[in-house]
């Protein structure tokens, strides 16, 4: 929204919709409801129906760009982003792109995310350093979530490696968290991606980065525990964005798929709400 930063939008949506839930828009035509199955031309229709059914229940939406690009459906993503701005203008949209390049190329990726698609935030890989982040921070008020401690088992191969050259020998993901909280976060635009399957690491990231928003995928089909996730990451002055994609998108294979998605989103929002209340009580004791 004009005049609001991404962080403002997150906090506003959390209050207004009473929600920590982000619905991930990962459209796979092979999994569409029976009457749409396999129809790549119906990607927009499917996603727009999910958006309309859940827009009052979420803190954010998160379209995954690969699910559109793989089917030559970037034009449908553009239409979907317009639909979101028109029908859910107060709900921030995070473009899940996981870009990671430098210089002019990074500048073009930033232009794609913020000018072509009109996203409010984007996911990035930080492993080429600050050079790969800066072009996105030129867009005032926009957000960038840096991959930190991801939910996949293979993340251990890099993210859990100890950096013996730094004081205290932090793990790599701990170092990323410190950078995002401190020297890289020049305009308060950064957040971190941490997986719900590792609640202990979420707590560690929150301790190292107490004020940045956390984007937390892995609740739902990936098996992350909603209560443990909220307890580890939520703080009153630091939003968390808990993503669920497949469990909501594919809650039904019938023509009532959007209503089924709404029911699943309501259930997940309530789980997160209860967990937030318990966490809030613990924190004030």
Give start-end ranges of low-pLDDT stretches: none
What top-tier CATH class fits best? Alpha Beta
Structural class: alpha/beta
How far apart the termini lie comes to 37 Å
- What integer value in Å does the Rg equal? 18 Å
- Total beta strands: 8
State the domain count: 1
Strand fraction: 5-15%
How do the strands of the widest beta sheet line up side by side? 2-1-8-7-6-5-4-3
> How many helices?
12
Say which CATH homologous superfamily is assigned.
Answer: Aldolase class I
> Which outline best applies?
globular
Helix content: 40-55%
Fold and architecture overview:
The chain is an alpha/beta fold. The chain has one domain (6-284): Aldolase class I (TIM Barrel), CATH 3.20.20.70. Helix content is 44%, strand content 14%. The chain is built from twelve helices and eight strands. The protein has helices spanning 6-17, 43-54, 65-69, 74-87, 103-116, 134-137, 156-159, 172-181, 199-208, 226-233, 246-249, 257-284, and strands at 21-25, 60-63, 94-99, 121-124, 143-149, 190-194, 214-216, 240-244. Strands 2-1-8-7-6-5-4-3 form an eight-stranded parallel β-sheet. Helix 9 links the parallel strand 6 (190-194) and strand 7 (214-216). The longest helix has 28 residues, at 257-284. It is globular and about 60 Å long. The termini are far apart. The model has no long low-confidence stretch (mean pLDDT 94).
């Amino acid at each position: 929204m004009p005049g609001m930063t991404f962080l403002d939008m997150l906090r506003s949506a959390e209050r207004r919709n009473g929600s920590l839930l982000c619905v991930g828009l990962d459209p796979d035509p092979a999994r569409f409801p029976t009457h749409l199955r396999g129809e790549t031309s119906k990607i927009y229709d499917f996603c727009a129906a999910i958006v309309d059914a859940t827009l009052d229940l979420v803190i954010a939406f998160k379209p995954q760009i690969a699910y559109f690009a793989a089917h030559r459906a970037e034009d449908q993503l553009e239409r979907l982003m317009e639909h979101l701005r028109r029908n859910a203008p107060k709900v921030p949209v995070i473009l899940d792109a996981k870009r990671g390049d430098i210089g002019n190329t990074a500048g073009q990726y930033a232009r794609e995310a913020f000018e072509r698609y009109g996203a409010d935030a984007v996911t990035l890989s930080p492993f080429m350093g600050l050079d790969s982040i800066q072009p996105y921070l030129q867009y005032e008020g926009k957000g960038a979530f840096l991959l930190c401690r991801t939910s996949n088992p293979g993340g251990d191969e890099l993210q859990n490696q100890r950096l013996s050259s730094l004081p205290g020998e932090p793990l790599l993901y701990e170092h990323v968290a410190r950078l995002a909280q401190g020297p890289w976060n020049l305009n308060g635009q950064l957040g971190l991606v941490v997986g719900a399957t590792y609640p202990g690491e979420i707590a560690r990231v929150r301790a190292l980065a107490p004020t940045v928003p956390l984007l937390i995928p892995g609740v739902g089909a990936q098996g992350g525990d909603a209560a443990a996730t909220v307890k580890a990451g939520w703080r009153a002055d630091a939003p968390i964005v808990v993503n669920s994609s497949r469990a909501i998108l594919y809650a039904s294979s019938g023509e009532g798929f959007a209503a089924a998605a709404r029911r699943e989103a309501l259930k997940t929002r309530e789980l997160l709400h209860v967990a937030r209340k318990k966490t809030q009580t613990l924190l004030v004791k």
